């Protein structure tokens, strides 16, 4: 398996009126070719800003930590050090779209209302592929067809508002894919959709990924979606990745108390009318990040005097897995 | 909910409810008006102290059913009969669809709505106390300030709100707390019927679990009935005693939760259930692929409205409207072939709904 992207110690700060906040701290993860990394966490945990950092799409008030490394292996084998590129450099613009495609949560916001979707797809194609207008149009129709839009030859001349939510989301995927990215970043691509449409889009993304061998980062707060699409998962809480590993293993046997809490809070079809089990307490605000382990204010297993003082380091309980919690020793074994 | 399903236990009877909206399209010369049948001939019953889940895809008419029952909009036709148990009520059965003027205003406190979006539904310039008290004041149910204060404090405490926060403004609160404020406001008049329209959909799972637990506790304490509208089927399965499924303005199935989820009779319900991604990596996620898109209610398909996408459709489905009927005890559906379909799924260790 070859590595496509490796992110180490990603730290993001924003200057705000109330001082500096650091909503992402020391985040480390990797994506391999042909694999899907699911990034899961409650709202505000830093999922979107992390992936915007990868594309250098953060606002000017943001800054990256000094140890931040984001290394991307381009199609030609060259390793790009994204953290060193400037937001408007030629290199980063070539990466956006052509190497890394992005799908946003709200597809309406990603389409211009004044151009037909065809115009916009054709433009995206020609930016990254040497094609004539006519060739690009044929290619665009082909892409729309691939994402399951029936009658693509007519739909291509419609405007985004004339399409249903599900069609728009699929057209958005067509735009992202038409530039031929090696890595696709999808930020809550199905959250706004109905379940049947969500199922169509998930199905489609699984198929296309298999066919095209892309790497994918799939952001969601839905562990059900993670279980169905991700090979690996990283669980974020207040800007830190608290646990990561193969999706199947993490969901079957979560190691971190937060992951355990998230799974326990899910309503399940196996236990109708049971009382649900929320995680106690509330998520702290990003400008009042707790000291030590960020989860200690809500953790039933916290070790007083340790968890509230020292930030836990990431340890490896099994090959391929990692957890940040004082319940595990240097070697990743549970401290009894 | 008690096992007694007799008429005396019936809170609401909805008979042949329809809501049509006029939609005007501009033409080259003049304009023409079409009727959008958002809700078409819907009948069902809600028992006292029961939660009825209402699911269906966007635009299927869920919100419109709820709003028509509350008389936030006027039904085009059909009946909404409300068997009130309020001690001060003049009669026990109120025909909500016929009320108007003062009678409607005085009846309003018997029912209420919890909004979808806890972020935008609270007036930022009102204190939490005034927000919660508003339904009492607006309906004229209570006039005495001390009496209102006492009621607000009682309901805020039941909703596990910090009483010191009553003097604050809503912007300072998190999503979960705001939703508690919305719920307190909806329950302050001690209504017998509350519509929760996507009330937990925007919340993170942990907060969602808290709110679902709270709604159940309040139901146990106060005996209120809920119409719980949501597109997340797993949440609906947890909170509802019975569940109704809507498709393009019509109910297609209505049954006790366990029957609906584990032995549905309608092909659309079956497809909807197959599309839920379960948080179980070993579950086989093989959603039924429906052809085409959800029809526009302006041009709803003839016959069975699902026939354009139904994998089981036969000739008569495009011409004959399937009858809404009870195919098994308490199990209603509208499909020509419901008696022949068996979509039963293994139901894990699902427990019976507690009596
Ligand atoms: N005031 C109105 N005028 C015209 N059409 C309306 C009006 N209100 C609702 N509709 C239409 O009625 C249909 C049902 O709408 P409704 O809001 O009840 O759907 P819903 O099931 O609640 O959907 P969602 O899941 O998106 O909230 C839709 O086609 C909608 O566009
Ligand atoms: N431009 C910005 N300025 C200041 N804070 C921001 C900015 N963008 C995001 N944040 C903060 O960063 C945190 C993480 O946000 P986000 O990545 O959007 O969360 P998620 O996608 O996980 O819901 C939040 O607390 C948010 O308020
Ligand atoms: S480090 Fe301590 S507080 Fe944090 S999750 Fe582990 S046990 Fe809980
Ligand atoms: S009536 Fe026909 S089209 Fe409608 S659900 Fe039944 S089989 Fe399908
Ligand atoms: Mg986000
Ligand atoms: Mg609605």
Automatic annotation (TrEMBL), chain B:
- Cited Gene3D superfamilies: P-loop containing nucleotide triphosphate hydrolases
Q: Which domain of life is it from?
A: Bacteria
What InterPro entries does this protein's entry cite? Answer: AAA+_ATPase, ABC_transp_ATP-bind, ABC_transporter-like_ATP-bd, ABC_transporter-like_CS, Oligopep_ABC_C, P-loop_NTPase
What's its membrane topology? Peripheral membrane protein
The listed locations are: Cell inner membrane
Q: Which UniProt keywords apply?
A: ATP-binding, Nucleotide-binding, Transport
PROSITE patterns per the UniProt record, alphabetical:
ABC_TRANSPORTER_1, ABC_TRANSPORTER_2
Q: Which terms in the Gene Ontology molecular function aspect does this entry carry? A: ATP binding; ATP hydrolysis activity
Question: Which stretches make up the ABC transporter domain?
Answer: 12-273
One GO BP: peptide transport
Q: Give GO cellular component annotations, separated by semicolons.
A: plasma membrane
Q: Report the NCBIfam families cross-referenced here.
A: oligo_HPY
Which protein family is it in? Answer: Belongs to the ABC transporter superfamily.
* UniProt-recorded name of the protein: ABC transporter ATP-binding protein
Question: What species does this protein belong to?
Answer: Meridianimarinicoccus aquatilis
List the lineage, top down: Bacteria, Pseudomonadati, Pseudomonadota, Alphaproteobacteria, Rhodobacterales
